[in-house]
Amino acid sequence: MSAAIEVRNLTKRYGRTTAVDGLSFEVRPGRVTGFLGPNGAGKSTTMRAIVGLDRPTSGEVLVAGSRYDQLDQPLRHVGALLDVSVHRGRTVRAHLTGLARSNRIPAARVTEVLEIVGLTAVADKRAKGLSLGMAQRLGVAAALLGDPQVLLLDEPVNGLDPEGILWIRALMKRLAAEGRTVFVSSHLMSEMALTADHLIVIGQGRLLADSSVTEFVSRNSRSFILIRTPEPEKARDALGGAGIQVADGPDGTLEALHTTLEEVGALIARHQITVYEISPQVASLEEAFMQLTADAVDYRAKQEV
Ligand SMILES: Nc1ncnc2c1ncn2[C@@H]1O[C@H](COP(=O)(O)OP(=O)(O)OP(=O)(O)O)[C@@H](O)[C@H]1O
């Protein structure tokens, strides 16, 4: 399986701001790849570089083996939902027809994409009358117009209602199942956990992780047994005596690491310690992501002071 998008040592500076800093990764076909990072991490800049809207300060980006500006009929190779920019006075259909014509795409395809995104009923309405969710759908329709093998979607769930969110998730999965490359950015780990098969995580314009979602979860999520007790010293001694590592949790709780509920329960009973709660805990994906990107966020916050 060869990579459909190759980002090689990409750096992009805007004046004194380094938005992307020596970033390299590949995006493969047949799966949804989530592009995750806190606000300002450099996701949009990278996506804009992939479709030739931003010129790299150094490094390069290849799509389907070529630089975007060297692709013949680029819309047939890459479809992108970046900023939704529509000629707002035009109708939905006219907007798509104009795009199709300038890219030598048959007009019949407009009817097809309107159907795919569920905008057939509003095809003759002016784009400026559309809700944000419908405007997102129109952006997706434009991205699909050339029936491309590679799709880039920058925060596609923004502005969508719950039904729209389910729709876009299903669409992305379907496009990937058809063998296409789907690269989708988000600043929400929870959203990506539901949609993506693979993750590229960046912070401060640098690569933090490149792994499957399953791997990311098992590597980054912290699990422990939470103990709430009025006798923390007794509990600490009992656990420590059995060779179990104990950390301090919030509100005076204890966290027993690398152990099981059964082992902790048995020890607590044997030492006759009063407990109010013993429960297994797994840090959420969102926490794992925040932990991973915390340094990047701190750094940026300090810079802006
Ligand atoms: N045209 C520009 N001129 C100057 N600085 C820019 C420009 N575009 C982006 N930046 C800066 O580059 C950094 C990365 O921005 P970018 O929009 O790529 O991040 P992002 O990960 O997409 O964030 P968000 O989730 O907020 O969209 C930020 O510090 C941003 O302020």
Tags for this entry?
305 residues, alpha/beta, 6-stranded mixed β-sheet, 4-stranded antiparallel β-sheet, 10 helices, 13 strands, binds adenosine-5'-triphosphate
Quick structural gist:
By secondary structure, this protein is of the alpha/beta class. It contains ten helices and 13 strands.
Low-pLDDT runs: none
Q: Please indicate the percent range of residues in DSSP E strands (runs of 2 or more).
A: 25-35%
Give the N-terminus to C-terminus distance in angstroms. Answer: 45 Å
Q: Which sequence of SSEs, written as H and E, runs from N to C?
A: EEEHEEHHHEHEHEEHEHEEHEH
Organism: Actinoplanes sichuanensis
InterPro entries: AAA+_ATPase, ABC_transporter-like_ATP-bd, ABC_transporter-like_CS, P-loop_NTPase
Domain ABC transporter: 5-229
Pfam families: ABC_tran
